[in-house]
Amino acid sequence: DFQGRYTLISFFFAECAPCIAEVPTLNAYAHEHGDMNFVAITYEDAASAHDFVKRHGLTWNVLYDGQALTDTLGIGVFPTLILIDPSGHVAGAAVGMSMEDTPAQRLADLGGWIEQWKAASQPQQPVHAAPTQQ
């Protein structure tokens, strides 16, 4: 369902303090970038995921019971962000974000990280030599 657009995935769990702290930044970024897909994934059950959304106001789609995917991808540190390009390939991954910065700086840093990986995942255009005049 998400093909054709960049997708940002956040891997989290309900009692993860950095996961909780980054929710406002993730929500703000998603609100400003309707051209992308956003999904959060937890290895926990539906009740835990629902409670997290309710308590912390996460506005993203949330998938629960994702232990098999978490294991397959080797996610061992939370939160982890993965950016998927429009063709379904991983464009970039990072573990969490700095919580020492201001909310505006965290949002700017997230945006910069995503733009960096978007640029790196674009197909490189062949360089053509300019025609020479004789």
Description of the molecule:
- The protein has helices spanning 17-32, 46-56, 67-73, 103-121; strands spanning 7-12, 37-42, 61-63, 80-84, 90-95.
- The protein has 134 residues and is α/β, with parallel strands linked by helices.
- The chain has a 5-stranded mixed sheet with strand order 3-2-1-4-5, with helices on one face.
- Helix 1 packs across helix 4 (103-121).
- The longest helix has 19 residues, at 103-121.
Helices and strands, with pairings:
Layout: E1 7-12, H1 17-32, E2 37-42, H2 46-56, E3 61-63, H3 67-73, E4 80-84, E5 90-95, H4 103-121
Parallel strand pairs: 1-2, 2-3
Antiparallel strand pairs: 1-4, 4-5
Helix pairs in contact: 1-4
Element-level helix/strand string = EHEHEHEEH
Number of strands: 5
What structural class should be given to the helix and strand makeup? alpha/beta
From the spread of the alpha carbons, the general shape counts as: globular
End-to-end Cα distance, whole Å, is 54 Å
Label this structure with key terms.
134 residues; alpha/beta; five-stranded mixed β-sheet; 4 helices; 40% helix; globular; disordered C terminus
What is the gist of this entry?
The protein is α/β, with parallel strands linked by helices and 134 residues long. Helix content is 40%, strand content 19%.
